[in-house]
């Protein structure tokens, strides 16, 4: 599969991206590596699974977490055929992956129709100025789950 080097892991991510295109998915692939071993891999499944969250990085993270039985991928590296989008970057942060290695960049993705600039611009704007309306509702009622979590003695932090 891979030769255990950065280039080998990236070649696996690229192979997954090419296989994804052939199978009707988007041109993205990713592998999660921990302690020199592939522990998760994934390809873009947005169209085949009718799920906009099924980006390659997300599927690879889910695979790694399932295989390792943990939500914490500290010390892992993700090799991805393209610079992660904002959603995937968020997932990488939440998984505590320690490094991202990518092939294509944001500009390359934009040139073929995968342009994330609007998302990055939207996130920088104050809530009141965003194109996507965001409003708060029933904050006091929603706070109950937070109170329960805060008081829970056996919670697993993440």
Description:
The two termini are 32 Å apart. Strand 3, helix 4 and strand 4 form a beta-alpha-beta unit. The chain has a 4-stranded mixed β-sheet with strand order 2-1-3-4. It is built from 7 helices and 4 strands; from the N terminus they run H-E-E-H-H-E-H-E-H-H-H. It is an alpha+beta fold. The longest helix has 17 residues, at 6-22. The protein has helices at 6-22, 46-49, 56-68, 86-95, 106-111, 117-124, 139-151, and strands at 29-34, 37-43, 77-82, 99-104.
End-to-end Cα distance, whole Å, is 32 Å
Shape summary? globular
Succession of helices and strands = HEEHHEHEHHH
Sheet-strand content, in percent, reads: 15-25%
Query: Helix count?
Result: 7
Helix percent reads 40-55%
Overall radius of gyration: 18 Å
Secondary structure class reads alpha+beta
Low-confidence stretches: none
How do the strands of the widest beta sheet line up side by side?
2-1-3-4
Characteristic terms for this protein:
alpha+beta, 158 residues, single chain, 4-stranded mixed beta sheet
Helix and strand topology:
Elements: H1 6-22, E1 29-34, E2 37-43, H2 46-49, H3 56-68, E3 77-82, H4 86-95, E4 99-104, H5 106-111, H6 117-124, H7 139-151
Parallel strand pairs: 3-4
Antiparallel strand pairs: 1-2, 1-3
Helix pairs in contact: 3-4
Give a brief outline of the structure.
The chain has 158 residues and is an alpha+beta fold. The protein contains seven helices and four strands.
